[in-house]
Amino acid sequence: MRLSIVQHLLLEYLTVMLKSTDLLKLQTVSTPKTTTKLVLGENEDNEVEEEEKEAAKQAEASEGPRREDRLEVLVETLLEAGIVSMLHTREGVKAALAVLWICPPKDRKTLLKSLKTCIVSTAENEHGHIFLMGLLDAVDDTKLLAKTVIKELLDDLEDVVAHPHARKVILYALAPRDRRHFAPALLDALIAPGDESPFTKKPLAVRALELRAPLVGLMPELLRLAASDEHLIPLFVGNAENPAPLEDRSRIVLLAEILIRSSVYELELSNAMSQFRRTGSKEEDRLSVARDKTAPIFTAADLEELARLREAALRKFVTAVLAGPDFKPVGLKPLSRDSVASAEARRHLQAQRRKRALAIAESEGIKKRKVTVKAFENTEEEEEGAANEACPEPMDTSATSEGGLPVDAPFLERPEGQLLVSRILQSEKKSDSHDFGRLICELVPEQTMQAWLTCNRSCFVLVKLYELGNASICKQLEEVLSKRHDLITVSPLPGAKVLAKHLNLK
């Protein structure tokens, strides 16, 4: 409790200083004040000098160090002591972010170096991962980020992707401040206050694209991971033999961002500027400077490499997940009024799933790294946990989700499965690029595509595929689906009815 009070007071002081004009004086060299003296006699001159010296001493004794000097000493002290110990509480993270925002580039480099060997443990911490998100948001030196933060994340990439907290750092690098993935209240309270920092020069869109460059290494490694036979199903998709992704559905969200943000359309600066930007008045100035910059972020070789890796990842996803010959929807039993869960009950079930996902990720990570102690220890949380150990909260360990689907349900029958495929197809429709749609038509067998007509969610995937408007894709769909004219026209599924209208079937 005492530490939290100190961190809170530190946060209050740094917040005030962040809004002060004295902040810019950290990088300026103060010059001594000069005074103009009148021409006096020798005795009078000596008397005046003595009076001025005495007045200067009194002023110095009363005023003390200048405000910017006090701030500089505070920052140096915090950097020397290290801020890792601050990152296990919400108040500590807020204070650490405030330190980051008031640090000039030279001090930010020192701050990043102090995190060496602690990046992964910080990312897996409940509060520490937010500080890493702030680093990716505010630090201009992309090479420094690649050598410190990104490098350590890539060294343990499988564990990072599997961990619910650490995964958010990767997700933030791909889609910074995306309010579909990060709570608006969290962004407004913890990230946005640094938008007026005078030491952050690059706009958010430029930062996001630079972090996807092959030179940084993050996006290529993520695409290779998604294209791997060893990792696609166990790490991202899940099945009966690999149930962890079924408990932790946000892994699918990361997979969707990997496949979407690596497209040529998403790598264009103008499109990134329309999606990612900070609040405040300084961001528009940053964007103006970025628009005038002629040097492209990606070279032709960079774009070619990312396109090749993305093609391999998309092809692997279609063949391993969508093109299976045994598509058999399990179906959902109609829910009675008594069985319909309230909003509060659904939130409770989701909280249970998050707890199970976190427990699974931490257990797997400990087995791989043979870690015997946690990276951060919060004594207050430990005491609270010990008090509740006698009567732990019951965990739902059934094989079905709150939607009623068993673990062996087909991927497209799962809500997160339909979400992933629909999002990729929507992105392709916006960019007028149909790589994913063509691969589905090319690699999914005719019998499997016709079997999709027996499930409402997969029917809507076919609708999204048809709505791409590509002549070749539409023609192939008409040829395959018209053979099941009898099934489509009599189907009670809403998705099948929409599909029948598109195909002009009566």
From TrEMBL:
Region feature (Disordered): 38-66, 378-401
GO molecular function: mRNA binding
RNA-binding recorded as keyword: yes
Compositional bias ranges of the Acidic residues kind: 42-53
Cellular component annotations (GO), alphabetically ordered: nucleolus
A GO biological process held by the record: regulation of translation
UniProt keyword annotations, A-Z: RNA-binding
Alphabetical list of PANTHER family matching this protein: PUMILIO HOMOLOG 3
Name of the protein in its database record: PUM-HD domain-containing protein
Gene3D superfamilies: Leucine-rich Repeat Variant
Domain of life: Eukaryota
